[in-house]
Amino acid sequence: MVKVIYFSREGENLVNGQINIINQGNTKQLAKIIASQLDCDMVEIKPVKDYPISYLETIDIVEKELRENSKPAYYSVKNPLYGNHLFIGFPTWCGSMPRIMKHFLEQENVSKKIIYPFCTHEGSGFGRSLYELNKVCPLSSVMPGLAIQGSRVKTSQKSVSNWLVHYKHYSRRN
């Protein structure tokens, strides 16, 4: 069994260098495309305390979380990690994985799972996130990831299909 697990944020976001309001987070949109192509369940990691709608206020909070290595609380998820293959998605914030996703992965049993990371960004790709993911999940196999610029998510179906070829080939062998 495979699952798509993601954290996303709606509201003001940076899009092609401009602050715009989006009604659905870019990572959520990408998670939906992946889950649709895999025909699998999605699990959203939701913060107990929502991030502000304001992009600039959110950046201030994110920078503080990074400085303090915060562990933002999230609502518990029922049986999120059944199965060996996990697609883990998040926006790249300040070049890093959001602390809420890091906290989630630290708390859940992801050892010996096969993780396919994906992220949305506005120019930094994964940044330090893959390093952080490997550090948080040392007993898991972290496979090649997919980084999509947030402003291009709506047209990313072909990129997702190409990326999933690796998963489909690997999952048939295991």
SSE diagram, text form:
Layout: E1 2-6, E2 11-15, E3 18-22, H1 26-38, E4 41-44, H2 55-68, E5 85-91, H3 99-107, E6 114-121, H4 129-136, E7 141-142, E8 146-149, H5 157-173
Parallel strand pairs: 1-4, 1-5, 5-6, 6-7, 6-8
Antiparallel strand pairs: 2-3
CATH class identity: Alpha Beta
**Helices and strands: which structural class?**
alpha/beta
Averaged pLDDT? 93
Helix content: 25-40%
CATH superfamily: Flavodoxin domain
Instruction: Give the CATH architecture.
Output: 3-Layer(aba) Sandwich
Order of helices and strands: EEEHEHEHEHEEH
CATH topology: Rossmann fold
Instruction: Please mark out the parts with pLDDT under 50 across 5 or more consecutive residues, or reply none.
Output: none
Q: What is the strand tally?
A: 8
Q: What is the number of domains?
A: 1
User: What proportion strand?
Assistant: 15-25%
In brief, what are we looking at here?
It is built from five helices and eight strands, in the order βββαβαβαβαββα. The protein is an alpha/beta fold and 174 residues long.
Molecular structure report:
By secondary structure, this protein is an alpha/beta fold. The protein has a single domain (2-173), classed as 3-Layer(aba) Sandwich (Rossmann fold). The chain is built from 5 helices and 8 strands. It has helices at 26-38, 55-68, 99-107, 129-136, 157-173; strands at residues 2-6, 11-15, 18-22, 41-44, 85-91, 114-121, 141-142, 146-149. The strands form 2 sheets. Strands 1, 4, 5, 6, 7 and 8 form a 6-stranded parallel β-sheet that branches. A hairpin with a 2-residue loop joins strand 2 and strand 3. Helix 1 (26-38) crosses helix 5. The longest helix has 17 residues, at 157-173. The model has no long low-confidence stretch (mean pLDDT 93).
